[in-house]
Write a structure and sequence with these properties.
By secondary structure, the protein is mainly alpha-helical. It has helices at residues 4-15, 21-33, 38-47. Helix 1 runs antiparallel to helix 2.
Length: 58
């Protein structure tokens, strides 16, 4: 899995309106390859961070 800085950079590229379509495709693929689903990516874009805490009851 890539380091957190690469994941943050990928998120920045996705949220930047000036990023090219190809750059966004590469950034999305990087996040997918790191285990993020489309829903995860959407949630991260909404909150502006790749850090996601999920609390569940065991």
């Amino acid at each position: 899995m890539p380091s957190i800085s690469y994941l943050n950079k990928a998120l920045q590229i996705l949220s930047n309106r000036d990023s090219t379509k190809d750059a966004k495709l590469v950034a999305r693929q990087l996040l997918h390859n790191s285990g993020f689903t489309d829903e995860d990516i959407y949630d991260c874009l909404k909150q502006g961070s790749i850090i996601r805490i999920t609390i569940f009851e065991a």
